[in-house]
Backbone:
């Protein structure tokens, strides 16, 4: 049966061996000399061999000389692990993996993560972006710690905490007739123009504008391709405001007034599963800074 070694006893032994004095070791360890001597004797009893020679001098036995570097390595390894665990518990180090929709990744996260990283420079953060469906799948499969998205499909194993509302509008070229007409944009005004559907078009389902989806002949899932087609004037599309390409000089975002459609952006996490300290710290930071509009 292997002896159960106590870190404190090993530490006292190494200290005595380095200082070559029980008195000096006791003073440095802030212990009484009898207490320290007892700890070393108990260690010798567990090992079944003497570590120090008998007599007045504090000299290592051959067995003690062999054990000293081994115990030093063990203590160093223990201290490294203890330090790392302590840093993990205080969320000073760690790894966090999140999944989010591209609009959040590009519009909201850069500034927020810049602040978080400056405050937690040793936390590693991995971001995967995709549509709401893929975000939910990555979370369900345990590939990420939490997600930032709208809910794709109800799932009893996933908890959704709304953070902000993102209004849906029409995106078209700046020279499009809808822009010139002005005024509140009613869905019926869109019927005369070809609609290019995208992954967020499902937000129109169940609204007065749902008929626009049935008459649409073109679907584009990739945002870069969608923007290119809109710039060519192939048609119009509907997008949440966060998904609109800010800085694009050819396109314009027109809020849809009737019906008013919004998507709820929030944090998704798995029910009944704890987060690592680092992931919990990041999630709390995002929840506190991505305020509901």
Residues:
């Amino acid at each position: 049966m292997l002896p159960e070694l106590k870190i404190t006893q090993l530490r006292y032994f190494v200290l005595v061996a380095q200082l070559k004095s029980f008195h000096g070791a006791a003073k440095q360890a802030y212990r009484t000399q009898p207490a320290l001597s007892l700890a070393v004797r108990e260690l010798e009893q567990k090992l079944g061999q003497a570590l120090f020679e008998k007599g007045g001098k504090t000299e290592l036995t051959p067995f003690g000389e062999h054990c000293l570097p081994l115990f030093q390595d063990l203590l160093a390894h223990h201290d490294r692990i203890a330090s790392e665990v302590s840093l993990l518990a205080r969320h000073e180090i760690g790894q966090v993996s999140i999944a989010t929709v591209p609009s959040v990744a590009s519009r909201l996260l850069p500034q927020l993560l810049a602040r978080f990283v400056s405050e937690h420079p040793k936390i590693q953060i991995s971001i995967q972006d995709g549509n709401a469906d893929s975000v939910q799948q990555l979370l369900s499969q345990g590939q990420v710690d939490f997600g930032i998205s709208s809910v794709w499909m109800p799932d009893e194993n996933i908890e959704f905490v709304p953070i902000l509302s993102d209004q849906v509008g029409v995106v078209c070229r700046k020279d499009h007739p809808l822009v010139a007409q002005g005024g509140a944009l009613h869905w019926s005004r869109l019927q005369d123009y070809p609609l290019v559907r995208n992954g967020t078009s499902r937000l129109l389902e169940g609204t007065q504008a749902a008929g626009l989806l049935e008459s649409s002949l073109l679907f584009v899932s990739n945002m870069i391709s969608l923007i290119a087609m809109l710039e060519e004037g192939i048609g119009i599309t509907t997008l949440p405001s966060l998904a609109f390409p800010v800085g694009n000089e050819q396109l314009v975002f027109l809020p849809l007034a009737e019906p008013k459609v919004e998507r709820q952006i929030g944090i998704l996490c798995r029910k009944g599963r704890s987060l690592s300290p680092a992931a919990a710290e990041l999630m709390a930071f995002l929840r506190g800074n991505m305020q509901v509009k």
